[in-house]
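Entry 12.
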Amino acid sequence: MPSWKWEPTIPGRSAVSVRFLAPTHGLLTNVGREHLEFFKSIEGVAAEESALFEYLRKQKKSVAFVNADDESVRSGARGMRRQVTYGMQAKRGGYRRKDRGV
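Predicted 3D structure (tokens):
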């Protein structure tokens, strides 16, 4: 199964990219400050990156992999039929890293 990774750099481009690529699964690792030069605010970055989940939400057989530690990612994934959560805050049904005192 092919996979792609992209970094949002132009407002609106992510929505075009996901329609072209037509993914069935999607993973957002986090919404952070690394793209502020293009989007001017964290909210702008979150809106652009959430285009992936917006596309997947409309598909019948899609899966979102959701970083439970990032509120922006969790918020973008609301309404997804099928989610796999991961991270320190992952609840039942997800994958949670247990702190080993490291």
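Annotation: The chain has five helices and three strands. The two ends are 35 Å apart (CA to CA).
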